[in-house]
């Protein structure tokens, strides 16, 4: 049942607000504040009386152990005061997130806080109440929670500010709630005209729809409009999609920012109407945009301008190259073909054709002579043992040495090209194809790689040759090698991995659900478990599924549990 007596503010109490969807960089306190000042100027020029920025907008999210540094929290406060001063003449109020000190000596040192700025002053502060500690989140480690929620009055409107997780606990939406308290319920019962939620809600597939469905359901339940301003951009392994939104008391979308890009949109409380940007519901396209954004931000925020990719002529490296071009520009991408003793002429031709279509620099550096020298040097130690994975992986490691040498020489970051299916079962070589600074598609299953590649070819017609789509996947480390020599077909493998890695299903359940052999499932899950040591030495990867290898999946390396 909705709260009785809700009314939209009277026209004399109209409030035009702006959603300031910005892309902050963790730790760039001055730069993030400058972004907000510029956006506030644009919002004021558009007639807004209030502009809202995301969770921890001053700090960037997630700041992790930076909040353990007292000086870091002090600088958050000084930049917040600067934001107040430099927007005071604009005639606009500001709500922004920042990391502040905690006064609870027995608890964590910091707070995840929202500030209400007006007339050059900080006139209100609100802490985050619900602190997520699951999946990629670890906020209980860092922040002291709020004990209560405040309602502020702004130009005749009663507004309440919540922070991200505070809206994710509606007992009528979720089958199982994570927290006893519901900040939205507590605020709605006090009587509010507008609930504001500043957020740093990271993207994964289908998250945008889930978030909107939840916000709409909550708005309908309490018959109150809700404005969500979400961070956009990539910070380390996390990608934030933005998709900021205002939903009316009927749950309908009244204002909406774009996904995967900075934006400034307006909403008028008197008319209950605002700007609505086009919003694609195609999830494959969303994954592609997320990978482009995540790659651009990771490379740039780490201080690099250009990247190097080993181009094998295969699907994974081809897709990675197209993403890199869209993220950084063709002039900042170098492809390197590194033929070895088992490379096919067709693979080199495919790599060269891709490079020409994308107009990127392409170098061919053979590893044949280096491989011959290394095998000769190792021969006395190897003795009469037959060739095996040692010789195969030597080729991959020589390629890793080659791209890393080019990285050192040109100051470019190496992008690794392994997909999630390979990473899951250890079909990758430490210090070989795993060498690099960012694993762009390490959370993309192989079957999705092919779909993304088709999408990439729509954006860059014919860039990935058709032969790359039709030839059997191969590492080309031994004669006539194919991935299916060691793995089941990816159409079989990927559903098994999805259930085991993302849903923690046990092998017997997986076998029954997919109607496949339980022995096959156990072989796959055993490979996943045995290769944790490899994945924890891999380059950081961009998260696009609900459970990626990395910060959101924390398994021990040395362990003997078996399902």
Q: Which helices and strands, and how do they pair?
A:
Blueprint: E1 16-21, H1 29-45, E2 50-52, H2 70-87, E3 93-101, E4 110-118, E5 121-127, E6 152-154, E7 157-163, H3 183-190, E8 194-199, H4 207-222, E9 226-230, E10 232-235, E11 238-241, E12 245-247, E13 253-256, E14 263-268, E15 273-274, H5 283-301, E16 307-310, H6 315-328, E17 333-337, H7 345-358, E18 361-364, H8 368-382, H9 389-410, E19 413-416, H10 420-425, E20 438-439, H11 446-459, H12 466-470, H13 490-503, H14 507-514, H15 518-530, H16 532-535
Helix pairs in contact: 1-2, 5-6, 5-11, 6-7, 6-11, 8-9, 13-14, 13-15, 14-15
What does this structure look like?
- With 563 residues, the protein is an alpha/beta fold.
- It folds into 3 domains: 16-272, 4-Layer Sandwich (Nitrilase/N-carbamoyl-D-aminoacid amidohydrolase), CATH 3.60.110; 286-473 and 531-535, HUPs (Rossmann fold), CATH 3.40.50.620; 488-530.
- It contains 16 helices and 20 strands.
- β4 and β5 (121-127) form a beta hairpin.
- The chain starts with 15 loop residues before the first strand and ends in a 28-residue tail after the last helix.
- The model is unreliable at 1-12 (pLDDT under 50).
The amount of helix comes to 25-40%
**Neighbour order of strands in the largest sheet:** 5-4-3-2-1-14-15
Gyration radius, rounded: 26 Å
Mean pLDDT over the residues: 92
CATH top level of the largest domain? Alpha Beta
Domain module count: 3
Shape annotation: elongated
> What is the structural class?
alpha/beta
**Amount of beta strand:** 15-25%
């Amino acid at each position: 049942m909705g709260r009785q007596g809700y009314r939209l503010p009277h026209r004399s109490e109209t409030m035009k607000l702006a959603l300031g969807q910005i892309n902050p960089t963790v730790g760039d306190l001055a730069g993030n504040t400058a972004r907000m000042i510029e956006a506030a100027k644009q919002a004021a020029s558009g007639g807004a009386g209030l502009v809202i920025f995301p969770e921890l907008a001053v700090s960037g999210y997630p700041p992790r152990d930076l909040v353990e540094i007292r000086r870091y929290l002090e600088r958050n406060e000084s930049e917040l005061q600067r934001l107040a001063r430099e927007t005071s003449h604009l005639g606009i109020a500001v709500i922004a997130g920042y990391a502040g000190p905690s006064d609870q000596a027995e608890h964590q040192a910091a707070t995840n806080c929202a500030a209400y700025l007006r007339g050059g002053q900080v006139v209100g502060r609100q802490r985050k109440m619900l602190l997520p500690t699951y999946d990629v989140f670890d906020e209980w480690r860092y922040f002291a929670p709020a004990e209560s929620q405040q309602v502020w009055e702004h130009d005749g409107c009663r507004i309440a500010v919540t922070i991200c997780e505070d809206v994710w606990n509606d007992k009528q939406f979720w089958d199982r709630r994570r927290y006893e308290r519901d900040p939205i319920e507590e605020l709605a019962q006090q009587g509010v005209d507008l609930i504001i939620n500043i957020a740093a809600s990271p993207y994964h597939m289908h998250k945008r729809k889930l978030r909107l469905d939840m916000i709409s359901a909550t708005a309908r339940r309490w018959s109150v409009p809700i404005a969500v301003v979400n961070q956009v951009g990539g910070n380390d392994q996390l990608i934030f999609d933005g998709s900021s939104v205002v939903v009316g008391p009927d749950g309908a979308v009244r204002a909406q920012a774009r996904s995967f890009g900075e934006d400034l949109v307006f909403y008028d409380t008197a008319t209950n109407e605002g700007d609505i940007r086009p919003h694609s519901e195609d999830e494959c396209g969303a994954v592609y945009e997320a990978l482009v954004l995540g790659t651009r931000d990771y490379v740039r925020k780490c201080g690099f301008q250009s990247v190097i990719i080993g181009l094998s002529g295969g699907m994974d490296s081809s897709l990675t190259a197209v993403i890199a071009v869209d993220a950084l520009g063709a002039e900042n991408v170098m492809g390197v073909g590194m033929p070895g003793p088992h490379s096919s002429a067709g693979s080199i031709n495919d790599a060269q054709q891709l490079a020409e279509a994308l107009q990127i620099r392409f170098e061919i550096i053979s590893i044949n002579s280096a491989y011959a020298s290394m095998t000769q040097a190792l021969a006395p130690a190897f003795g009469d043992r037959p060739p095996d994975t040692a010789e195969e992986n030597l080729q991959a490691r020589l390629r890793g040495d080659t791209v890393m040498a080019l990285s050192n020489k040109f100051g470019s970051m190496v992008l690794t090209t392994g997909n999630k299916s390979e990473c899951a079962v250890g079909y990758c070589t430490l210090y070989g194809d795993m060498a690099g600074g960012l694993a762009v598609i390490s959370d993309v299953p192989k079957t999705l790689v092919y779909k993304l590649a088709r999408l990439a070819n729509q954006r860059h017609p014919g860039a990935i040759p058709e032969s790359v789509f039709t030839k059997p996947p191969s590492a080309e480390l031994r004669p006539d090698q194919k991935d299916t020599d060691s793995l089941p077909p990816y159409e079989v493998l990927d559903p098994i991995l999805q259930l085991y890695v993302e849903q923690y299903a046990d092998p017997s359940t997986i076998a029954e659900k997919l109607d496949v052999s339980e022995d096959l499932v156990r072989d796959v899950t055993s490979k996943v478990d045995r290769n944790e040591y490899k994945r924890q030495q891999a380059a950081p990867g961009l998260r696009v599924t609900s459970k990626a290898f990395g910060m959101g999946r924390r398994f021990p390396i040395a362990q003997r549990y078996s399902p």
